[in-house]
Predict the structure.
Amino acid sequence: MGQAPSRDYGQEAMRRRIGVLAKQRREELGLGRIPFAKQAGIGSDRTVFDFERGNNLPQPLTLAKLERSLGWRRGAIAELMGDERRKVSDVAMEDLDEHDSLKKTGLAQFSLPEILREAATRIEALQQSLGVQALPDLGTKDLYGMAASGHIPEHLEKEFEGKAPGGT
């Protein structure tokens, strides 16, 4: 008698693992299923629900939309689904994400504090070159510090309540 397939191998297990990672990424993006489906250009949040539960894989066009919206490499899902020797528990977000070489170009090579520090420096230099006096309470460096630490001033807390940083 043959052995029953392990829960750590096979198409069904891989679909479930990819679904877990998709849900994790969607939540990292701060999106519910409906807003995510809309942003991705997918007709129904039910498609997203079924995908995240590992119930099925959508058609190739929908998979491409999901990969793009999740920041995953195009074709990464099909690649993992086709690798029958791959242990499901070894599949990580990095296996789906865009290649590292792409992440190290442009602004992605800098941390948020580095970008904010440079922006503050350039704003001050621009103001000086234009002879414009900054408002005394502008405090560019204070704004940089608050933004870098994720601090929201008390008078703005209600406006940002329940919103993910950088969200809409």
